[in-house]
């Protein structure tokens, strides 16, 4: 028996090698040995020996041309999209922009041409590939087997699988090997099975669409509002259960017929082209008051295609409004923030949060101390939301903002006739309205002395007495207080009751000023910029960031947040310089001379001096840089946390897996890395590589 014939397949990328190799093995099994090579992994030209060489693309053939001899039998494979996965495209909304991601511009454009030729002309495909400077902001990406190249931030990725060798190339391979007569029946059978599999998936897609329509109908039937829709000819194609109950026409009598012929009172009176959308129009039908909305349905050409009509009875809406008013949350007495909204990694600040979390689980009064703008009210919200009372009202009162003669009636309420202008029937105070919840007394140091005794009664006896009343009212409320004043000093000056001070001071949380937690400034800058859709890492010049880092921030976090809002507004997309900063910060920076060492005397610090200071003030960035460097060194293979811990250890870092998890989450929130699902590892994004490059340039 002679030496078995050999086909050598050469592809780019391990996944392509495996898929195309399996396709050729399936076709040639038993007659020809198939060896598959990957040009970017352990490739050597000496391996290009065989009866037939199949290269996966024209660029690969060009790269390998110097190694081919006159005897080399070479075929460039024509590739096509695997039709078995086309059903995935049918689930995407038509007339939308979709990025088509592939390894090169030519292959991306070729895939787009294939899809258009297959009839997917309802989609706007945009070629995206590594090295593209302006990546489109698109939510959906389709890729033929290159999901790792999809830019970060894309919400939906459809992987059609690697492009396979098309049937014309397979026939040419059999001809070159003189196997066409022998293998033609196998190729026909394979192709027939292929078509049957595609048909099954298309049928399933149609079934899925039918199930989706059924689901939408079910949802509409659960809606309390009446919902109807008519097309351009006036025929009804949506008519939900609520509409059936109101008009007493069954759906089978209405669907597919002109609404004007059945329920003319609700049908639009004008032709479709003359209609305009209408909101909250009061109408009467059979003696019943309705609130009606008519919304035009417009096509891609912005021309009206139909009308959606929704309605509800005004009596029903008024009943719902009365019920909502009885719900405490409708008054706005809801805590909006949680501990997740308190950002920072300063040890003193984190210790403060841990203490606050511990206090939150109890029912004891809490006193929050801190300078103005440090986030005392936000912490009060978080304490309430982490407490057993989180589902009950949260009422915030600023004791310094209300006039003293009004504060007592607001807090404790009043009886009818208690004073001139008192509401008939009296009024419940905020302590009563906070029943079962928490009341936050901001700037309690400004509470009038005469009201402090009444507050002490609330704390100790759990009861209040309204102005002008003769009886006490039991209450169930937790008190969270805050002040920027020194209460002990106020006690010494006779401005604050000593017994109230000791009652409140037992459970105290002190928020550090921003000047004390300067290392958190980059974190807070990043957080507030993210809220405005901007990126911290290229928003400021080095000198502008240096000015912000050295500024003492007398207004603390509130001043920093307002500064960011100002800078986002005036920057207009360009990088913020020192001259763009608010006047107070610029003036402080001009007079400030940072400490210098060695030959640097006076003046402004260089970027290298500033970089050293960033290392000191923001030590976590050292870990972030190390992690990004490691991930950048493994572009093809995502790395798990254990692998990252080991790599860090090799560099001299002794860091736990928990710390690595925390830093990766922070990097992912900045879109510098992508964390895969269970055991899929983490990889660096293009944005992460760009940021790493910028940081290398800085220092």
From TrEMBL:
SUPFAM superfamilies the UniProt entry points to: P-loop containing nucleoside triphosphate hydrolases (SSF52540), PYP-like sensor domain (PAS domain) (SSF55785)
BP GO terms, sorted: regulation of DNA-templated transcription
Domain of life the protein comes from: Bacteria
Alphabetic keyword roster: ATP-binding, Nucleotide-binding, Transcription, Transcription regulation
Domain PAS: 216-269
Lineage: Bacteria, Bacillati, Bacillota, Clostridia, Neomoorellales
InterPro entries, A to Z: AAA+_ATPase (IPR003593), AAA_lid_NorR (IPR058031), P-loop_NTPase (IPR027417), PAS (IPR000014), PAS-like_dom_sf (IPR035965), PAS_fold (IPR013767), RNase_R_HTH_12 (IPR013668), Sigma_54_int (IPR002078)
Annotated PROSITE patterns: PAS, SIGMA54_INTERACT_3, SIGMA54_INTERACT_4
Coiled coil: none
A family per Pfam: AAA_lid_14
Record-given protein name: PAS domain S-box-containing protein
Domain Sigma-54 factor interaction: 342-569
Organism: Thermanaeromonas toyohensis ToBE
GO MF annotation list: ATP binding
């Amino acid at each position: 028996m002679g030496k078995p014939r050999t086909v050598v397949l050469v592809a780019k990328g391990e996944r392509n090698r495996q898929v195309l190799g399996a396709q050729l093995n399936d076709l040639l099994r038993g007659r020809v040995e198939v060896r598959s090579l990957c040009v970017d992994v352990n490739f050597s030209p000496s391996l290009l020996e065989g009866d037939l060489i199949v290269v996966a693309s024209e660029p690969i053939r060009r790269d390998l041309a110097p190694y081919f001899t006159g005897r080399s039998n070479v075929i460039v494979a024509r590739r096509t999209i695997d039709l078995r996965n086309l059903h995935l495209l049918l689930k995407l909304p038509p007339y939308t922009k979709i990025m088509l991601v592939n390894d090169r511009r030519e292959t991306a454009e070729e895939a787009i041409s294939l899809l258009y030729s297959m009839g997917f002309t309802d989609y706007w495909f945009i070629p995206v590939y590594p090295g593209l400077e302006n990546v489109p902001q698109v939510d959906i990406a389709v890729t033929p087997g290159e999901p790792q190249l999809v830019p970060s931030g894309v919400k939906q990725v459809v992987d059609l699988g690697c492009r396979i060798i098309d049937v014309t190339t397979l026939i040419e391979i059999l001809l070159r090997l003189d196997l066409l007569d022998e293998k033609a029946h196998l190729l026909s059978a394979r192709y027939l099975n292929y078509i049957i599999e595609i048909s099954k998936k298309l049928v399933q897609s149609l079934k899925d669409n039918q199930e989706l329509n059924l689901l939408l109908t079910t949802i509409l039937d659960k809606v309390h509002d009446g919902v109807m829709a008519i097309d351009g000819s006036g025929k009804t194609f949506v008519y939900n259960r609520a509409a059936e109950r109101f008009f007493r026409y069954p759906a089978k009598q209405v669907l597919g017929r002109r609404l004007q012929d059945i329920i003319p009172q609700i049908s639009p009176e004008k032709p479709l082209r003359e209609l305009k959308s209408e909101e909250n129009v009061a109408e009467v039908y059979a003696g019943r008051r309705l609130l009606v909305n008519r919304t035009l349905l417009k096509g891609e050409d912005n021309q009206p295609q139909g009308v959606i009509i929704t309605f509800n009875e005004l009596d029903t809406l008024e009943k719902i409004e009365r019920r909502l008013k009885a719900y405490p949350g409708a008054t706005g007495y809801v805590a909006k923030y949680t501990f997740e909204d308190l950002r920072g990694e300063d040890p003193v600040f984190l210790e403060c949060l841990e203490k606050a979390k511990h206090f939150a689980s109890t029912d004891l009064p809490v006193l929050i101390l801190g300078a103005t703008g440090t986030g005392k009210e936000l912490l009060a919200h978080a304490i309430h939301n982490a407490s057993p009372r989180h589902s009950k009202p949260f009422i915030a009162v600023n004791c310094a903002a209300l006039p003293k003669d009004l504060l007592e009636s607001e807090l404790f309420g009043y009886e009818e006739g208690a004073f001139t202008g008192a509401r008939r029937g009296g009024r419940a105070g905020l302590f009563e309205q906070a029943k079962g919840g928490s009341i936050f007394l901001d700037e309690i140091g400004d509470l009038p002395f005469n009201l402090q005794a009444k507050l002490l009664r609330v704390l100790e006896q759990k009861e209040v007495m309204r102005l002008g009343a003769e009886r006490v009212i039991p209450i169930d409320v937790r008190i969270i207080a805050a002040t920027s004043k020194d209460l002990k000093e106020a006690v010494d000056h006779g401005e604050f009751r000593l017994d109230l001070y000791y009652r409140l001071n037992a459970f105290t949380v002190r928020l550090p000023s921003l000047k004390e937690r300067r290392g958190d400034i980059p974190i807070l800058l990043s957080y507030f910029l993210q809220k405005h859709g901007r990126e911290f890492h290229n928003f400021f010049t080095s000198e502008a960031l240096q000015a912000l880092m050295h500024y003492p921030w007398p207004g603390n976090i509130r001043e920093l947040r307002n500064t960011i809002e100002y800078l986002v507004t005036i920057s207009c997309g360009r990088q913020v310089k020192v001259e763009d900063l608010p006047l107070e910060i610029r003036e402080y920076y001009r007079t400030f001379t940072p400490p210098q060492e060695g030959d640097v005397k006076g003046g402004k610090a260089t970027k290298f001096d500033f970089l050293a200071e960033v290392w000191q003030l923001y030590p976590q960035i050292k870990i972030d840089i190390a992690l990004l460097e490691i991930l950048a060194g493994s572009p093809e293979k995502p790395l798990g946390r254990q692998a990252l811990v080991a790599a860090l250890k090799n560099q001299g870092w002794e860091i736990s897996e928990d710390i690595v998890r925390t830093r990766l989450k922070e990097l992912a929130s900045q879109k510098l890395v992508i964390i895969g699902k269970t055991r899929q590892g983490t990889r660096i994004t293009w944005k992460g590589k760009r940021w790493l490059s910028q940081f290398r340039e800085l220092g």
